[in-house]
Amino acid sequence: MKAMIFAAGIGSRLKPWTDEHPKALAVVNGKTLLQRNIEYLQQYGITDVVVNIHHFAEQIKEAVSLNKGWGSSVVFSDETDALLETGGGLKKAKNLLVGNRSFVVMNVDILTDLPLDKMIEAHNYSNAIATLATTDRKTSRYLLFNEQKELVGWENAKTGEIKIAKSAKDYIPQAFSGVHIISDFIFPMIKQSGKFSIIDTYLDLAQDNKIKCFDHSGGKLVDVGKPDSIAIAETLFP
C-alpha cells in the first residue's frame, strides 16, 4: 500500500517559522513533522510514500535525501510552479498512486495515534470511494454524515454556509482529521482540474457514491498549524 503526504502548503498559520522553512520541517521533540508521519505510516507497513512539495521544496528534498527517507521510499510530486491545493495535488500525483486498489492520504501537519489498520480494514469492507477520519471535536467547519456514516454535506459553523450533497433524516456533524483512505478508481471520476479542494470533489461524488467516515474520537490528534500547537504536540508525542 502507498501513501501520500500533503506537504506543499505555505503554512501561513505557522509563521514566522514558515517565512524561511516549509511547515513539513517544523520540529516536535527533535523530529520534523514529515519524519513523524513517515514513521507513523511505517507502523502499519506503509513504506512507499509520495510527498507533494511547493513551499521551500528544496529544503524538503534535502532533508529526505540526508535522512535516506527515514527508512521509507519517498518520491516527490513537484508543485513548485503552482500550488494546487488538496484536490489538485492529489490529481497531479495520480500516476504515483494508482495500482494498489487504495492508498492513504494525510496532511503533514497532523499528528495522531489513529489506528490506521482498523481504518483501512473498514474502508476495504465498505467498498467506499473514500473513508475520512473524523472526530466529534468542536471546529469551525464540519463534514455532515447520515446514520450510515455516509458523507451527505458540509457546514461552516461560523458563517452558516451549508452544502448538501444528498438528503438525510439526520445530519451528523463530524470534524475532519486530515487523514483519508482513497480507492484508486476515484481518479476518472474527478471532474475538477487545476487548483481545487478535495472536499469539493467529495461533495460532488457523494451524491451518487459512498464516502464513509471513520470516527476515532478520544484518540490523540493535534493540528500542528500554529506555533502554540507545537507545545501541545510535544506533550502528546514524545
Describe the structure.
This protein is of the alpha/beta class. The protein has one domain: Spore Coat Polysaccharide Biosynthesis Protein SpsA, Chain A. Helices cover 26% and strands 29% of the residues. It has helices spanning 33-42, 57-66, 85-92, 94-97, 116-126, 198-205, 227-236, and strands spanning 2-6, 27-28, 31-32, 48-53, 73-78, 102-107, 110-112, 130-135, 141-145, 151-156, 162-164, 172-183, 211-215, 221-223. α3 (85-92) crosses α6 (198-205). The longest helix is centred in the middle third of the chain and has 11 residues, at 116-126. The radius of gyration is 17 Å and the shape is globular.
The figure for the number of domains is: 1
Residue share in helices? 25-40%
Q: What is the CATH third-level topology name? A: Spore Coat Polysaccharide Biosynthesis Protein SpsA, Chain A
User: Residue-averaged pLDDT, rounded?
Assistant: 97
Pick out the low-confidence regions.
none
Lay out the secondary structure:
Layout (H helix, E strand, L loop, with lengths): L1 E5 L20 E2 L2 E2 H10 L5 E6 L3 H10 L6 E6 L6 H8 L1 H4 L4 E6 L2 E3 L3 H11 L3 E6 L5 E5 L5 E6 L5 E3 L7 E12 L14 H8 L5 E5 L5 E3 L3 H10 L2
Parallel strand pairs: 1-4, 1-6, 4-5, 8-13
Antiparallel strand pairs: 2-3, 6-12, 7-14, 8-12, 9-10, 9-12, 10-11
Helix pairs in contact: 3-6
Q: Which features would summarize this protein structure in a list?
A:
alpha/beta, 29% strand, globular, Spore Coat Polysaccharide Biosynthesis Protein SpsA, Chain A, two-stranded antiparallel ribbon, 238 residues, 7 helices, 26% helix
